[in-house]
Write a structure and sequence with these properties.
The chain is α/β, with parallel strands linked by helices and 196 residues long. The protein contains seven helices and six strands; from the N terminus they run αβαββαβααβαβα.
Length: 196
């Protein structure tokens, strides 16, 4: 009976190794959720990542928009899913539900709108309540191409450090850190060890 149990255990472990080796040659899914106040540039960011073009939306997002893009990193094919959520406070609880099973969450604020920066503490608190998988969180100070800043880089960096989060600045207009921010999550997923 002992030998039989250990033989079955060996078969199961071998099967997992075989499946993992097969999946390493297949496409991995990377789910990233965009959160933040209205008009912080989430939709324009998603469009720039998908198409490489700067196309500001004509209207405010309603509900949740979904897009994806195939990328290659560390000899792996990755399908990056971008979930662009509504920023209106009345719909925010619905947005947080999409954080479930996310690999990465990007919290946006507009560097030219201080109120969007001041919203971050409550958003972070809610994200931690809804996200049971402890996804990596990245704060993005968006529209960094603008000159009329209301939030400085040092202040934003200090806030991120105090919350043990990473901070980047981005611009959909000139392309600053659009691809780099998504690749940040992709690289983390590629380098994580798989438990068997």
């Amino acid at each position: 009976l002992y030998l039989k149990k250990n033989f079955l255990k060996y078969i199961i472990i071998s099967y997992h190794f075989k499946i993992n080796n097969m999946e390493s040659n297949q496409e991995s899914i990377l789910k990233i959720v965009l959160l933040g106040d209205d008009n912080t540039g989430k939709t324009t960011f998603a469009t720039r990542f998908k198409t490489g073009l700067y196309k500001p939306p004509l209207t405010t997002s309603i509900g949740v928009d979904f897009t994806f893009k195939h990328i290659s990193l560390e000899r792996r094919n990755i399908k990056a899913q971008i979930w662009d959520t509504v920023g209106q406070e009345g719909f925010r609880k619905i947005s947080f539900l999409y954080c479930t099973n996310a690999h990465g969450i990007i919290l946006f604020f507009d560097v030219s709108c201080r109120s969007s920066f001041l919203s971050l503490p409550s958003i972070i608190k809610s994200v931690k309540n809804y996200n049971n998988q402890n996804a990596e969180i990245l704060i993005i100070g968006n529209k960094c191409d603008l000159e009329n800043r209301q939030v400085g880089t040092d202040e934003a960096n200090a806030f991120a450090e105090n919350n043990n989060l990473k901070y980047m600045e981005a611009s959909s207009k000139n392309g600053t850190n659009i691809n780099e921010s998504i690749e940040y999550f992709a690289f983390r997923e590629c380098t994580q060890k798989i438990d068997i």
